Every structure is written in C-alpha cells, then in structure tokens.
Amino acid sequence: MQKSVVAGFLIGFGALALSILIDSHFKLHAIVAFFNFSAMLIIFGGISGVIVIAFPPEQLREIPVALRKAFLDHRDIDQVAMSLELLDLAQKSRKEGVLSLEARIPELADPWMRRSLQLVVDGLDRKAVQDILEVEFEEYTRKTKVGAKIFASLGGFAPTLGIIGTVMGLVHMLANLEDPSKIGGAIAVAFLATFWGILSANMIFLPIAERVKAKDMQLALARQAMIEGVLAIQAGEAVRLVEEKLKVFMTPDMVGVFETERLVRGDGRQ
Q: Are 177 and 247 within one domain?
C-alpha cells in the first residue's frame, strides 16, 4: 500500500477518534458506540444495492482496478522505460529507415506501441495514423474514467442513504414512544446513519475517486507521450527533438531518472 494513502487515513480517522475520546474524557467505549450495526448496514448495504442498480456488470469489474490504483503503486506504463525505448526506435529509424523498425515490433512489451508502430511501418500517412491513435486514446480514457466515476457516485449516494437511515430511525422512535427504553436506541441509529453516510462519502469514497482520477491522468499523459513519440518517428524528426517532446509529459522526478538513464546508455554501460 502506498505510504501517502496510509498516512492520509491514519491522520483523518485518527483525528476523528481523538476528537471522540476528548469529548468523552478518554473513555474507549465512546468510540465503540459509533459502530452501530443497524446504521452501518443501512449505509454499506444500501450502497451495495445502489451500485448494482446504477452500473452494469462490465463496469463493476473496474472497481478492483480502481482500488489497486488508489492503494497500491499501480502503473501499467513505465513512462521512463517507454520513452527510452521510443528514443532507441527513433535513432534506428533515422539511421536505417522506418521499415527497419518492423523487426523490433514483436519485441515491444506494450501492445499499443506495437500497433502504433505497425501502422507507421505499413505506410499509412501521418493524418491516418494520428486519427487512429486519437480514437484509441479517447476509448482508453473513457474506460479508465469508470472506476473514479463509480466512487464519486458512491460519495453522492452515501449521504442520501444516511438521511434515509435517519428518517427510519425517527419513525421507529415515534412508533415506540410508549416504551421509553427503545427511544434512545432509535435516536442513536437515526443520527449514526447520517454520521456514517457523511463519513464514508467524505473520508473514503470521494478521496478514493480523486486519487484514481489523478492516477488515470498520469496514465493518460503516458499514452499521449507515446502518441507524440510515434508520430515524431514517422515524421523522421531528430532524436534530440523527440527527446524534448517526450520530456514535456514527464514530472521533474521522471526527467531526472530519464536523463540519468540516457547518460548510462550513452556511456555504453547499459
């Protein structure tokens, strides 16, 4: 799990737990009281039903992918390695011609890069290659946005379900006014449903959605860099110009690693 995610949850939930303990004069059972089964069932059980209704099965399969992006160091493209590979291909193309890349295509790990370079080797003009790659990129970004959309939707549904739970608790309380012993429990369920609805939305679902969006943006930038690199190779641009174009899509840390690797390869050590 990524350290920043762990730190974020520890800070957020730790501050919440500390606040409860301070208000209760550090009585641990005060925290336990917030874990009301009925209230949590309304929220998390209701959410489970809502997402099944709102999203088709093929989109629900994106939930584990989104969670890996949010919690693990997930990246399906090593942008630095990809950029170095594109530079090697650009250099080979400049020296031996575009057709010389055909022998290298099967060796490429990324299927999209293989397809893209195959289009170039097959002799399609720049406009046709660009149009095809842009359509593929749009479809790729559409698919990657599904996971973030699901968690953002959960962040919207959860508070509403909390209100439903509150209404249910109040109705239950009003139905049992003749029995004072049941009123306290009904009120607790009512307010705790709202508590868990708002808490889960703002400290779980919406933060996950935002983190997945950030990860998807990184992946989209890597794909865009790949497109620019392939089009530059097709145009026969100088290797130095290809390098500068690829750097545009990198973070400062990536640029540092990239330039270090370039120096190592230039020295013949790698």
A: yes
**How many structural domains compose the chain?**
2
The 3-state DSSP class for residue 250 equals coil
**3-state SS assignment for residue 214:** helix
Token digits for 49?
């039903």
Inside any domain, residue 107? no
Query: Residue 200 sits in which domain range?
Result: 36-81+124-266
Q: Which tokens in the block code for residue 215?
A: 């990860």
Do 178 and 65 lie in one domain? The reply is: yes
Q: Please indicate, yes or no, if residue 102 is contained in any of the structural domains.
A: no
pTM summary value:
0.79
pLDDT of residue 143: 80
Q: 216: closest CA among 133, 123, 152?
A: 152
Same domain, 75 and 13: no
Q: Between the CA of residue 123 and those of 98, 112, 118, 165, 235, what are the distances in Å?
A: 9, 17, 9, 63, 12
**For residue 236, is it within any domain?**
yes
B/e letters for 117-137, b = 16+ CB within 10 Å, e = fewer, are bebbbeeeeeeebbeebeeeb
10 Å CB burial of residue 262 (0-12, 13-18, 19+) is middle
Tens digits of residue pLDDT in 171-214? 878 877 777 777 777 787 788 989 999 999 999 999 999 999 98
For 73, the 3-state DSSP assignment is coil
